[in-house]
Amino acid sequence: MDARIRIENVVASTSLSDVLDLQSIALTLDGAEYEPEQFPGLIYRLKQPKTAILLFRSGKVVCTGGKSMHEVEESIHIVSAQIKKAGEKINMHPKIEVQNIVATSDLGCEINLNSIAVTLGLDRVEYEPEQFPGLVYRLDEPKVVLLLFGSGKMVCTGARRPSDIQLAVQKTRRELLGAGLLDGVRDRPAPTDSRPSNKPRGVKPVAAAPKNDFPSRSPPSTRPSNPSV
């Protein structure tokens, strides 16, 4: 079964004009934040879709916070229409380019990051639990970065298309399965002995020791204690 993937943020950019009068636009957009001494762009937050639009004097626009490309396009269209009403000459049908897609997924079981670091190759991963609880895995194809956590959760960043995320997650999952690093033992029921008893009748059976007196068959986990994402 493929791991579920959820897109958390789509960052995209476009250009509405050669120049924008941010001071005038700030007066038009209710709730806009424009403090050029602190940040050169104007920040406008939409409630529906819940996104943030960054406008710059060069006419460049960045949209962040969208959960899909549809939300990005809708947000830019809403802001463009309001800016046009203010008298700005802008392109109402700009070409929008995705810069980054951030998504999350879950492998469905806990994983041993120490073993994974060795298996994937130290030249492809960064794992320093003293500084960051996750393992950083850089893929060449597709060119994305995966953050793996001991809980089995993953964060994918750097993708330009949703298909890149799907491919990266599937590729990593297959690699870990092939190396035997995705263990589902914790979800399996304890085996029961259904064989018939060979003891003769009339013989009093010896009381069995409680199950808790036996050591666990599974070795203790060497996975570092990592918080869940």
Task: Give a topology summary.
Layout: E1 5-15, H1 22-28, E2 42-46, E3 51-55, E4 60-66, H2 69-85, E5 97-106, H3 113-120, E6 125-126, E7 135-138, E8 145-148, E9 153-159, H4 162-178
Antiparallel strand pairs: 1-4, 1-5, 2-3, 3-4, 5-9, 6-7, 7-8, 8-9
Structure at a glance:
By secondary structure, this protein is α+β, with helices and mostly antiparallel strands. The chain has helices spanning 22-28, 69-85, 113-120, 162-178; strands spanning 5-15, 42-46, 51-55, 60-66, 97-106, 125-126, 135-138, 145-148, 153-159.
Description:
This protein has 4 helices and 9 strands; from the N terminus they run E-H-E-E-E-H-E-H-E-E-E-E-H. It has 229 residues and is of the alpha+beta class. The protein is elongated. Mean pLDDT is 83; it is low at 185-229.
Query: Share of helix among residues?
Result: 10-25%
CATH fold category name of the largest domain: TATA-Binding Protein
**In the CATH hierarchy, what is the superfamily of the largest domain?**
TATA-Binding Protein
Largest sheet: 9 strands, antiparallel
Shape: elongated
Number of strands: 9
Order of helices and strands: EHEEEHEHEEEEH
